[in-house]
Amino acid sequence: MNAPIIDQTKLEAFVAQAVGDLSSAYGGVMVSLGNKLGLYQAMAGAGPLSAEELASRTGCAERYVSEWLNAQAAGGYVGYHAVSDTYELSPEQAMVLADEESPVFIPHAWQVPASMWFDEERTLEAFRTGKGVAWGDHDGRLQCGVAAFYRNGYRASLVPEWLPALEGVVEQLEAGIDVADVGCGHGHSTVLMAQAFPRSRFHGFDAHAASIDAARRNAAAAGVADRVSFELTQAVNYPDRQYGLICFFDCLHDMGDPIAAARYAEQVLAPNGTVMLVEPYAQDKVENNLSIVSRMYYAASTTICCAHAISEGGQLVLGAQAGEARLAEVFRKAGFAHFRRAAETPFNLILEARR
């Protein structure tokens, strides 16, 4: 066979891209360390600081802090002032790295790839056998990382933007209805809705026991435990309360039989009820999903989403980039006549289904 002709320019460009990705992975470890050690928080609003000053503020060893700061400066995560040998966190960087309440706070998200590396042997076995890996069988950093990452995004958008985009739902919530949050995880979405609509009753359902425990703690801490309940159950057998609103937040694509989950929702939905489906943003064709965000979602789908759906029998393994057309088909088969895109963000599609 003839040896392929290598385009040196293309080779060098791709090597640079790959090394950049590798550098980003190293940088993710640094972000996690900076968050857990309080380094970013100590820098926020403090102006230029030396390594010695930051070490003193955080109770860390100066030599480690110095090297960490240089890694941050090299990656553009902090600014460096050569004249004074100091480092500074800008207000924009602080929103992403130091403010736990910011909608763009990112450090917790790095727990997800950490869990993916920890679970590599499980994933290798899944590839070789075709078997699934259940959500609860992953390293615990996965559940905590996903819950914390989504929490702030939901806080920024769910009540002020997504719910008002649905037809008549806010008025129903204000009057008082039963709401099901299917696949509620740690219950952040359930709690947010309960805080905003005190006349309604909210019921979170999940198949992962540790997540249900965390959800109950979160509801108690938020002071809404009197009108929020959480139950350990599947998406096809939670109690029928004729819900005015049924929500699926970033979870339907993880289910082994999403059509069955949608069909059950149709059965337990009030006559004028609505299903809100929040799914990862995706176009309907692969060639339109070749982006940085889609790369992240496809990777998570490979090791987490598809793996869990297969563990549940894999009747229809949607994956995290299902796209609106495939999701619409799921709800059509489940008996819904109305399905539309109500809103979108760079990360999510917000879809509405009604009978």
Describe the structure concisely for a colleague.
With 355 residues, this protein is α/β, with parallel strands linked by helices. It has helices spanning 8-36, 39-43, 51-58, 62-74, 91-97, 111-118, 120-129, 140-162, 169-175, 188-196, 209-222, 258-268, 292-311, 324-333, and strands at residues 79-81, 86-88, 178-182, 201-206, 228-232, 243-249, 269-280, 338-344, 348-354.
Indicate the overall shape: globular
Distance between the termini: 61 Å
| Total of DSSP H or I helical runs spanning 4+ residues | 14
Structural class: alpha/beta
Q: Which strand-content bin applies to the residues?
A: 15-25%
What's the rounded overall pLDDT mean? Answer: 96
- Strands, total number: 9
Estimate percent helicity: 40-55%
* Largest sheet data: 7 strands, mixed
Computed CA radius of gyration, to the nearest angstrom: 23 Å
Q: How is this structure best described in words?
A:
The model has no long low-confidence stretch (mean pLDDT 96). The chain is globular, with a radius of gyration of 23 Å. The strands form two sheets. It has a seven-stranded mixed sheet, sandwiched between helices. Helix 10 (188-196) packs parallel to helix 11 (209-222). It is α/β, with parallel strands linked by helices and 355 residues long. The protein is built from 14 helices and nine strands. Helix 11 (209-222) links the parallel strand 4 (201-206) and strand 5 (228-232). The chain has helices spanning 8-36, 39-43, 51-58, 62-74, 91-97, 111-118, 120-129, 140-162, 169-175, 188-196, 209-222, 258-268, 292-311, 324-333; strands spanning 79-81, 86-88, 178-182, 201-206, 228-232, 243-249, 269-280, 338-344, 348-354.
